[in-house]
Amino acid sequence: MTGTDTAQPDATGRADLAGTADVAGERLRRWRLVLGGGEADGTGCALRGRDVGMDAALGALYGGTTGAGSRKAAGERSAGLGGSAPNVARWLGDIRTYFPSSVVQVMQRDAIERLGLSALLLEPEMLEAVEPDVHLVGTLLSLGKAMPDTTRETARAVVRKVVEQLEKKLATRTRATLTGALDRSARISRPRHHEIDWNRTIRANLKNYLPEYRTVVPERLVGHGRAGQSVKKEVILCIDQSGSMAASVVYASVFGAVLASMRSLTTRLVVFDTAVVDLTEELDDPVDVLFGTQLGGGTDINRALAYCQSKITRPADTVVVLISDLYEGGIRNEMLGRVAAMQAAGVRFVTLLALSDEGAPAYDREHAAALAALGSPAFACTPDLFPDVMAAAIEKRPLPVPEG
Question: Taking Cα atoms as reference points, which of 240, 88, 257, 241 lies closest to residue 168?
Fold first, then answer.
């Protein structure tokens, strides 16, 4: 092999080098967008084209700031949205151009929290520019009576869009899961062969086990038929509307409307802070339910459970679902006493610390432990898990409590 041969890499070698360079360059580009530029970032990477606009959108939200609309030294990110509606509207349009919807929703949420943009959401132009999601709905509901009439209809349109998306995602599986649970819970004493519940039948006839034949003689058959219109369960959703429960209120309202649409269920929806409001009459439209809530304020779980307890007519056929972080401002011992009394009467009591995709919430651990001791473990529940939780409650099976 000659010296000339060793000095010149072949085509494959050049391609490998070029590929390595491209990977390294992309890595530097990403770090530059994360770090924000200036001498301190250490990348030495210059942005071009679309990346310049993307960096400006990130800088307006996440860049260091010394005041609204301030500018840093040359070459560094500018920061702030200037606190004006035109600037915010432009920025909302930019992030929808540069980022996917899931990222846009996170950035909007961060902008509301970091830059105090809640007041600007009171303007119809702003609401028309944002990407609707559950967290935005929670923010709008928290604004409540501060929302002017000129904005209210636009806000309702935003909320309705989110609600319709959630209903489309959740309704079919919820109805199918609960219909199956209701069918199985409608036990009959003389079932046809295909209606026999073999697990329950075997348990009911274990005393008739014949060792010599290694079999059970089924003197009594246990079966389930289809839950007709006359076979009903009662569900009471009792929802904490304190400010930390915003996403749970949104999901619970949608599920409440879905449950209310099922003929084999009667559904009541109650929201509370220090007062109790029964929104059952609004369940045909979850948007009306949401605008009937008032996020914020204190919490009196005991008062809310007292109201729910007064509405129970068939305890053995009733499921009460308390959705709360359990920070009780009422009378703790009375609250626990009511739960114990309802369970003793045959009510299936379910405690959800949250109904959302936000992960484990902050909650009162002492109250959660006390409820668990009464046989009602408190746990956070995702919207995808909720139909299975309700099915287990209806059938009086152990609840599918997530691990951890």
Answer: 257
